[in-house]
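Residues pack. Consider this:
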Amino acid sequence: MTEREFDQKVERAAANFERRVETAADHLDKTVNRAWNRSRLFRCVSRGTSLAAEVGLLLIAGHLADRGNRTAAAWCAGLSAVGLAGDVLTAICFRRKKK
């Protein structure tokens, strides 16, 4: 097998892999969107998970600050604040209308 043939096989394998990943991502996106639109429980669990992650980041920031890792603590607190602000803005701007 020449170097050119090898390169072509690698390119084909990479293209096949990329196509499979894109197909799987599209399927996941459609499934999650369908679940989000149809299930109040799914929306509540998703938002709760997001809020738990952001509160966890705040707690970790406090722990890091106590141990003297001020830069990491600032990053964690900043990311948490941005996430919480995003959740609040999303809740305000995209409220579901009662039917």
Q: What stands out?
A: The two ends are 66 Å apart (CA to CA). Residues 54 and 81 are 8 Å apart (CA to CA). The chain has three helices and no strands. The mean pLDDT is 92.
